[in-house]
UniProtKB/TrEMBL annotation:
Name under which the protein is recorded: SRPBCC family protein
InterPro entries: Polyketide_cyclase/dehydratase, START-like_dom_sf
Signal sequence annotation: none
Family matches, as Pfam families: Polyketide_cyc2
Classification lineage: Bacteria, Bacillati, Actinomycetota, Actinomycetes, Streptosporangiales
SUPFAM superfamilies: Bet v1-like
Amino acid sequence: MRTVEFSTTTTLSAATEEVFEHLADPHNHVGLSPLVVEVRDVRRGPAAVCFTAVERFTLGPLHHDNVIEVTLHLEESAMTGDVVSPGGVRVAYGYRFASVPGGTQVTDHYRLSAPFGLLRFAVGQAKKVQAARGQELARRFKAKRSPHA
């Protein structure tokens, strides 16, 4: 299996603690990724949160629900996650948080491994999710601060 790594950075108009708490709540992941349509079976421990997520892949009128197991490891200035997906796709991702004037800079890093036949598709989907997640986080925190939201 090949492994591919990539990152993006987003600056949010919110305190680091607020961003961390938002991402540490699995229920906030619904819609954060355009694929995640459901979160269930949330299990919280002192340094990790585990949950089951349903990713929905759509092609025209057809859709496939991909059930994945996610573990979020909660650290002081970072959060890392492990995803086990059917088909041999494995994703290790992480968020690094840094306070900047007016908010928080979030670096979203992926390390994805997949069998040869799935690698291109999995990387393409992961990059789309990563870009959408940054945009959605920015939208969510902007909406919290807008008096007309």
